[in-house]
Write a structure and sequence with these properties.
CATH architecture of one domain: 2-Layer Sandwich
CATH class of one domain: Alpha Beta
Structural class: alpha+beta
Largest sheet: 3 strands, antiparallel
Distance between the termini: 50 Å
Shape: elongated
Order of helices and strands: EHEHEH
Mean pLDDT: 94
Radius of gyration: 18 Å
CATH superfamily of one domain: Ribosomal protein L30/L7
Helix content: 25-40%
Number of strands: 3
Strand content: 15-25%
Number of helices: 3
Amino acid sequence: MALKVKLVKSVAGSNNEQRATITGLGLRKLGQERVLEDTPSIRGMVNKVRHLVTAETVSGDAPKRQRMKPRRVRARAARLAHEQQQ
């Protein structure tokens, strides 16, 4: 099971704790949606800001996040690959 969370109201005027919760859910812009794993901690976060978001249960699993290397490491790898081609 997964939980689809959508930011439907602005965080302007909210306290810092609620803003941090919205950021923790991975929401940045108004209208943005995220499909998250349905866990008690996520449910608690959604409940804390329920006046700012909508949540619905969806079938299937939440997509796994792919980790990215830091920008410096990616740039260095690209530079080395380019040098090896020459």
